[in-house]
């Protein structure tokens, strides 16, 4: 940051507006500020600091205290600064909260703090980037990336504060160096390594738990050594896997033996099945023979019924030959009936039309007799048409007169309305101006409350964050208790499932001996021991468990083990999250305790309610005030519009008065023309509407008479034509009827002859024999199906009788019992065989999974050894108790000290050198960034706090210059283009002063601007640019003086 122009108004000792234009320095990069004590030298630094941060450069001077006592009451305190930063020019303007004399009456009113910030283009155009105190503070923090305290320690060393950076502890230096060198990434690396190490450790522990659970599920096959190994609290995985291989060999041998026995029993079972299947086939054939015999007898009994069906089909075919002739007779009868109906209808129409013709002739004679009346109407219409032009002219002028009268009255009303509008507009303008004044007052109040709202909102947000964190902490604690109970419950269920499996397996193995004994016979070898004698056979009891019971128990064990693993993982996850959240919550509470005086967790709800109330009240007030402020432009526009409207209405009134005068002249002319036309037109015809009605009336009467005559003539012609057409139609119908009657008699005689020919005695017999073609087809199909089924049943019955000739009925039940016994013994062997295979397979799966877990754990343990070690080192668990981030910062600090010592050596004639303290501090105190001073005279180092005032100033100045050098070398976000030093040179002897000045001269080549406040004459002589501050009874003034 490099200042360009500082403007102070009513600020400190500066009564009016004081402008310090740093651009007058030109290429000079160093200047001294001189003047008498109290003249206002330090106030220049206060002005720069206040413009940027809203705070003075010293701790004891706050915004409201900086108002000038020399200033006029109506002149507000204000500071503005134009500065450049990274090739961009900014302009910032601030005013503190202050008391202002009221414009009316006595007393003062409080004006709240204000701030605005602009970005300047190359042509000087300003672009607003922050409009209030909160936005300006945020924008300054964003672009400068230093707070006010860090600014004072690095860029501006105020009077009495030059030792702070030098003597600050490791924690304070860490905060400053973090901002300067952006080392947040290294802190993130520390956190990531710690999280990764914790996760790896938990994965290793879960792997060990899972491996133990799997090994506990091994089927030992009564191997005593393996059972003893599995009872150990910490398992010897290598020994267990070795013994498991021996158990697998024994189990596989048992599997092979049972496979052999099963194959032998399958041969016995298959032979029994073959005999049972053959007997069952014979039984089925005998049953089919009985069914065929029964069906054959049923078909034999239906022979008479089939003969009757054949006879009915023959009669139906004969009747079908007569149906065409019968349909022809019926069609002719229907056509004859139709002709008769039409003839009757047409005769009725003919008689009606004859009557209509008589009536139409009488009506036509009556209309022809009205010809004289029609002629009179023609004469009346001609007379009216000749009068039409005068009537229309009279009506037009009458209408014009009425329109002029209406317009004249309308204008008179409008004139009154415009006058009323003018009065209302004047009232409205006065009210709007009063309202504008009220809104401008609201604008001032809005500025006062913006900063207050920002502060309340920030504290409220932090309170709610802590409240949410505490609630989550409670929820996590409750969830941890619940997960602990679930984990313990899952563990108990898993142990019960394992004990139950052991009992069921033991019972099942004992029961196998009883099932095996059921199938032993004297003289035959036992499949287990090989003996041919069985003196004491084992017995099956109801309490023996089945192979299904064993499978169910194993599934229950597998399920409970999986649920235990999931419960343990869930418990571990909640435990880790709870511990991590508790640590973060405590940090939030500590921060809030420092921010809010009197805050405790117990009274949090009270504070939240209090700040919510403050926020709501301030926000509501600000909302209402801003609502008024937003209306100011609109109100100004309304006032302007109102004034324009006033002028417009005045012009309109004048125009309307002129129009009213012209209408009076037009009214007189129209009245004269109407008087002349009145003498030519009868009074009842003067209206255009009355005239037109009379014309329409006569035309209508004439049209009605003519239409009645035309209609009578047209009706007479139409009725005569209809009567002639109906007469011809009736004659044709009578001829067609005679022809149809003759044809029907001929076809009826033909039908009766054919009926006698086909041997139907009567029409009733013929009608009964008629069948539909589909019905005939159905009966014929039924007859054909009967003969085909009869032949098929006969042939199949004969075949089964030949096939079963000489055979006896077999004893199927005896053969099935023999097969069932063989099946049961084979199932028993199969269950034992499957159980052995299941044990072998389960043990193989466990061995495979354990080996995979061993490989995964080996990789995880190797990774944890590395990551855990790195995490410990980066978190400060090392010889020097340095975290990774602080180690990086120490490296930067070493570079700063190297640059600082190059100047300190010159200033102290080689006596002193700054060192970084590398040994560990006592206890758990953070270390690594504290400074020591090495004294060449004693050959020992000591703490920098032991330096004298002059020695401290030289060390602090060297450190500040070295810090600026190193920061400029790194492409960081902080720009150190300026340095201000307030006093301290007076503590130096002449030789040290020369060395200090030489060190300052050396940095001019870097282009950095250095401003020094000092009373030392040597500085004024050596530095050619001087900002002189002079004071009198009216306040202070400044001016640049150049000697070179």
Blueprint of the fold:
Blueprint: E1 2-11, E2 14-21, E3 30-35, H1 41-53, E4 78-85, E5 88-95, E6 98-101, E7 108-111, E8 114-120, E9 126-130, H2 133-144, H3 148-154, E10 156-157, H4 164-167, H5 170-181, H6 184-216, H7 224-231, H8 237-300, H9 303-368, H10 371-517, H11 547-595, H12 604-678, H13 688-757, H14 763-769, H15 773-803, H16 812-874, H17 884-907, E11 912-916, E12 931-935, E13 940-943, H18 949-969, E14 978-982, H19 990-1002, E15 1009-1013, H20 1017-1022, E16 1025-1032, E17 1035-1042
Parallel strand pairs: 3-15, 3-16, 10-14, 14-15
Antiparallel strand pairs: 1-2, 1-4, 4-5, 5-8, 6-7, 8-9, 11-12, 12-13, 16-17
Describe the structure in your own words.
This protein is α+β, with helices and mostly antiparallel strands. Among the domains are: 2-155 and 977-1042, Rossmann fold; 306-369 and 689-767, Orthogonal Bundle (Helix Hairpins); 371-613, no CATH class. The protein has helices spanning 41-53, 133-144, 148-154, 164-167, 170-181, 184-216, 224-231, 237-300, 303-368, 371-517, 547-595, 604-678, 688-757, 763-769, 773-803, 812-874, 884-907, 949-969, 990-1002, 1017-1022; strands spanning 2-11, 14-21, 30-35, 78-85, 88-95, 98-101, 108-111, 114-120, 126-130, 156-157, 912-916, 931-935, 940-943, 978-982, 1009-1013, 1025-1032, 1035-1042. A six-stranded antiparallel beta sheet has the order 2-1-4-5-8-9. It has a six-stranded mixed beta sheet with strand order 10-14-15-3-16-17. The chain has a three-stranded antiparallel beta sheet with strand order 11-12-13. Helix 5 packs across helix 17, helix 9 (303-368) runs antiparallel to helix 13 and helix 10 packs across helix 11. The longest helix has 147 residues, at 371-517. It is flat, with a radius of gyration of 62 Å. The two termini are 26 Å apart. The model has no long low-confidence stretch (mean pLDDT 80).
């Amino acid at each position: 940051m490099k200042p360009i122009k500082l403007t102070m108004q009513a600020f400190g000792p500066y009564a009016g507006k004081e402008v310090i234009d740093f651009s007058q320095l030109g290429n000079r990069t160093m200047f001294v500020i001189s003047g008498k004590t109290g003249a206002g030298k330090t106030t220049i630094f206060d002005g720069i600091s206040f413009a940027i941060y809203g705070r003075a450069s010293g701790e004891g001077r706050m915004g409201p205290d900086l108002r000038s006592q020399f200033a006029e009451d109506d002149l507000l305190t204000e500071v503005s600064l134009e500065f450049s930063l990274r090739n961009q020019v900014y302009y910032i303007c601030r005013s503190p909260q202050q008391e202002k004399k009221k414009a009316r009456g006595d007393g003062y009113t409080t004006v709240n703090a204000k701030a605005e910030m602009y970005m300047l283009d190359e042509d000087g155009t300003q672009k607003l980037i922050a409009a209030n105190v909160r936005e300006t503070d945020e924008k300054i923090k964003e672009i400068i990336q230093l707070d006010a305290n860090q600014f004072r320690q690095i860029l501006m060393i105020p009077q009495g504060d030059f030792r702070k950076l030098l003597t600050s502890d490791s924690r304070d230096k860490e905060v400053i160096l973090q901002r300067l060198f952006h080392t947040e990434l290294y802190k993130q690396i520390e956190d990531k390594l710690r999280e990764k190490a914790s996760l790896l450790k938990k994965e290793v522990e879960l792997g060990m738990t899972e491996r133990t659970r799997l090994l506990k599920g091994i089927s030992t096959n009564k191997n005593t050594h393996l059972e003893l190994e599995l009872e150990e609290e910490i398992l010897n995985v290598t020994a267990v896997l070795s013994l498991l291989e021996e158990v697998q060999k024994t189990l596989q041998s048992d599997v092979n033996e049972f496979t052999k026995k099963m194959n032998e029993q399958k041969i016995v079972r298959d032979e029994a099945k073959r005999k049972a299947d053959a007997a069952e086939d014979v039984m089925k054939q005998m049953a089919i023979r009985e069914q065929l015999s029964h069906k054959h007898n049923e078909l034999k009994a239906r022979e008479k019924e089939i003969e009757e069906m054949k006879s009915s089909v023959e009669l139906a075919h004969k009747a079908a030959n007569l149906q065409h002739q019968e349909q022809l007779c019926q069609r002719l009868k229907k056509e004859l009936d139709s002709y008769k109906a039409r003839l009757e209808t047409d005769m009725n129409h003919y008689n009606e039309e004859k009557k209509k013709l008589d009536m139409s002739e009488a009506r036509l004679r009556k209309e022809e007799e009205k010809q004289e009346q029609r002629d009179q109407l023609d004469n009346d219409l001609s007379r009216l048409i000749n009068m039409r032009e005068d009537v229309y002219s009279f009506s037009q002028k009458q209408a014009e007169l009425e329109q002029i009268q209406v317009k004249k009255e309308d204008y008179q009303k409008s004139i009154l309305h415009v006058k009323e509008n003018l009065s209302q507009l004047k009232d409205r303008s006065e009210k709007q101006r009063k309202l504008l004044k009220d809104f401008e007052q609201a604008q001032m109040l809005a500025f006062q409350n913006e900063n207050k709202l920002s502060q309340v909102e920030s504290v409220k947000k932090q309170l709610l964050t802590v409240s949410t964190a505490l609630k989550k902490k409670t929820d996590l604690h409750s969830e941890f208790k619940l997960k602990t109970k679930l984990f313990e419950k899952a563990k108990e269920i898993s142990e019960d499932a394992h004990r139950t499996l052991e009992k069921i397996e033991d019972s099942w193995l004992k029961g196998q001996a009883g099932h095996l004994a059921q199938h032993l016979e004297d003289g035959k070898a036992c499949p287990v021991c090989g003996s041919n004698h069985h003196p004491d056979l084992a017995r099956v009891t109801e309490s023996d468990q089945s192979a299904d019971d064993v499978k169910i128990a194993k599934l229950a064990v597998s399920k409970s083990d999986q649920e235990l693993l999931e419960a343990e993982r869930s418990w571990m996850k909640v435990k880790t999250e709870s511990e991590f959240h508790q640590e973060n919550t405590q940090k939030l509470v500590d921060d809030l305790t420092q921010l809010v005086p009197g805050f405790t967790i117990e009274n949090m709800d009270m504070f939240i309610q209090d700040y919510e109330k403050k926020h709501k009240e301030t926000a509501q007030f600000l909302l209402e005030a801003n609502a008024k402020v937003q209306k100011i432009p609109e109100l100004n526009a309304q006032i302007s519009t109102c004034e324009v409207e006033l002028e417009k209405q005045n012009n309109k009134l004048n125009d309307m008065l002129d129009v009213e005068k012209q209408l009076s002249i037009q009214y007189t002319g129209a009245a004269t023309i109407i008087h002349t036309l009145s003498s030519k037109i009868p009074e009842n015809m003067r209206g255009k509407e009355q005239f037109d009605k009379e014309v329409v009336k006569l035309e209508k009467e004439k049209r009605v008479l003519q239409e009645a005559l035309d209609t009578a003539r047209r009706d007479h012609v139409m009725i005569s034509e209809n009567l002639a057409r109906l007469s011809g139609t009736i004659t044709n119908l009578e001829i067609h009827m005679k022809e149809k009657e003759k044809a029907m008699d001929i076809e009826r005689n033909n039908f009766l002859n054919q009926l006698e020919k086909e041997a139907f005695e009567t029409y009733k017999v013929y009608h009964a024999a008629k069948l539909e073609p589909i019905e005939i087809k159905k009966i014929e199909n039924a007859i054909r199906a009967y003969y085909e089924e009869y032949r098929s049943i006969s042939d199949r019955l004969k075949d089964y009788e030949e096939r079963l000739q000489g055979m006896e009925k077999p004893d199927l039940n005896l053969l099935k019992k023999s097969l069932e016994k063989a099946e049961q013994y084979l199932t028993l062997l199969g269950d034992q065989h499957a159980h052995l295979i299941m044990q072998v397979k389960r043990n193989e799966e466990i061995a495979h999974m354990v080996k995979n877990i061993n490989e995964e754990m080996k990789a995880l343990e190797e990774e944890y050894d590395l990551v855990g070690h790195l995490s410990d080192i980066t978190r400060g668990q090392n010889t020097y108790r340095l975290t990774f981030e602080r180690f990086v910062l120490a490296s930067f600090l070493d570079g700063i000290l190297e640059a600082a010592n190059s100047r300190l050596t010159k200033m102290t004639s080689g006596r002193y050198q700054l060192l970084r303290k590398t040994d560990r501090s006592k206890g758990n105190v953070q270390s690594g960034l504290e400074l020591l001073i090495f004294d060449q005279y004693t050959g020992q180092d000591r703490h920098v706090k032991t330096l004298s005032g002059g020695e401290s100033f030289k060390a602090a100045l060297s450190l500040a210059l070295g810090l600026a050098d190193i920061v400029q070398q790194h492409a960081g976000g902080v720009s150190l283009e300026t340095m201000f030093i307030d006093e301290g040179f007076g503590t130096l002897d002449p030789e040290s002063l020369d060395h200090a000045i030489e060190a300052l001269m050396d940095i001019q080549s870097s282009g950095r601007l250095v401003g020094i406040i000092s009373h030392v004459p040597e500085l004024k002589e050596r530095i050619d640019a001087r900002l002189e501050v002079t004071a009198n009874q009216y306040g202070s003034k400044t001016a640049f003086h150049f000697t070179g």
